[in-house]
Design brief:
CATH architecture of the largest domain: Alpha-Beta Barrel
Strand order of the largest sheet: 9-8-7-6-3-2-1-11-10
Structural class: alpha/beta
Largest sheet: 9 strands, parallel
Distance between the termini: 30 Å
Number of domains: 2
CATH class of the largest domain: Alpha Beta
Keywords: Hydrolase, Repeat, Signal
CATH topology of the largest domain: TIM Barrel
InterPro entries: Divisome_Glycosyl_Hydrolase, GH, GHL10, SLH_dom
GO molecular function: hydrolase activity
CATH superfamily of the largest domain: Glycosidases
Low-confidence stretches: 1-35, 412-445, 447-459
Pfam families: GHL10, SLH
Mean pLDDT: 84
Strand content: 5-15%
Protein name: Glycoside hydrolase family 10 / S-layer domain-containing protein
Length: about 650
Amino acid sequence: MKRFDFSMKLIVLAVCAAIAVNLFYTPKTDIVSAEDTEMRGIWVASVGNLDYPQSPTADAWQLRVQMDEVLDNCQDMGFNTVFLQVRPSGDALYKSDIFPWSRYLTGTQGTAPSDGFDPLEYAVNEAHKRGMQLHAWINPYRVTNSSNDNGKLAANNPAVLRPDLVLTDSSGKMYLNPGEADSIDIILEGIREIVRNYDVDGIHMDDYFYPSSGFDDSAAYFKYQDAYPNKADWRRSMVTTLISCARDAVKEIKPNCMFGVSPSGIWANAGDTPGGSNTNGSSSYHSLYADTKLWVEREYLDYIMPQIYWYNGQPNADYNTLINWWAGVCAPKNVKLYIGEAAYKAASGSEAAWKGQNGINELSNQVSMCRQSQYIGGYSMFEYSSFMGNSNLYNLIKQLHSTPAAAPTLGEINQPNPQPEVTQAPEDKPSEPTQEPASADPTNAPIAADPTSAPTNVGDASKFTDMGEYGWAMPYIEDLVNQGIVKGISETEFGPDIFISRADATVLLYRILKESDITFTENFDDVYPDKYYYDEIGQAKATGVAWGIGNNLFDPDGTMQRQDMATLAYRVLKARQILTAIPNTAKALNNYWDWRDIDFYARDAIAACVENNLMGGYGDGTIRPKDDATRIEVALFVQRIKTLIDSK
């Protein structure tokens, strides 16, 4: 997605905040009181059996004992937050309907632990007993961590079920293609599954996004190249879409559950990108196509934890330079800043600054620097095994944590309440109704005229006495009434604010498409022959116009959300080659400050409808995707579709 128009203002604020970090703040003391909170996190990795389990086993007792040992040690070292890697490579350390059991857990992908043991469920419960938070750490796109694993996928792995979504990097590792919307849907469903089924304190992503610039995603890009002539911008847009939707997925289920990312420590270098840090290293913006700074500016995250795995004074990537740069980015925003620390380098680093006691001193100094900044709320150490193999490091962290501190929670962070600029609807089309819909039973007020009888008020829509608020819409309603497509709820009333039924909305779209009558052999189980819409819904189903709700049910009397109205129309118009251009989703939706309320599946559809003047927003700058559609809205919607079809 492209930046909002006020992005330059945010850059100026961030630069000013960065200056304030260096010159004007009053440092915190290096002593953390018991009343304080501080992120004291530790990453526990499962990929490659780095930390847990030590080696693959399906034995539930062994898995339980090893988890107890990990959590006991974390508690002893004074950590208050554990980031447990539960989805390392397109697989899971928990019972999932989407991803197979991880081979790093049991040795064979798809093989479950014995006795119904669920490592994530156990880890959450045991961490909470020890007074620690547990965040579920996922790697979103990676399917395999080695090309040797490509032939060892379980039959229910998404990469096996949807091979069309899989690409490989230069080393042969498999990834879900970040440029495919269906890949994003799989990842989002995986996130929802965790938040819904487990009492996790957060969902956490690391720094693996696009694997490289040479990733062959040209087929996916072809569909978007008109809207994104620059392929790099398109890639960043797709990753940003994932991040934005991931946060929404978490909050819809558990608002107090944290969502955060631990990206590469360099967003971009000032030498090649305005607003970048005074560094010269590999950056997330250009190498991984992750616009991490934008995510903070738009507050798509509860926290960001950049991996600043460099030492103080390191050429091209100085630790102090980077923590101050990130503090400047986060200071004006409602996003907490924690720092990812390279404990593994202090344990076994090859550079002089990290060797032996130098490494212990460096890590200690870095923690002190974090504590002295009022803009940094803590840190996380990578990774658990580094402390198990180095007694000096183990003792250092216990000393640093000698004074208790609670883990941060969302109770201390004000929930985002963005107030974007209100954008009025374009003058060349009428705004959608601003009156709140009246509560009414839609089953008693069909808008579609019964095709077996003469429609009410044909050619005389002027008899409707309840259209005072919508006088501007009368020419459109007149046209539809003249054609026998819509009718009123009585001789003198149209019922503009009554919610429309799914049956009527679908029938109207089917009629506007001017489909020829066809013979159908089946209908939805809840669409009964005595209903006036029976034949048309059956024909609509046969031609792909009717959209069921699952299990061969249609819910004909149910209401239809505005976003579903747009999605139904877009799918049909796209399939019939009436709409062929890829919508510029960012440009079309940024006019509406509630665009993030649009579910991911409907964003392209609403964008296409907006671009083609089929759908508009309200006078207050909203588009209200989850409002139930009213009779007047759908009538105008199908009329605009009719105009579009007639122009082709």
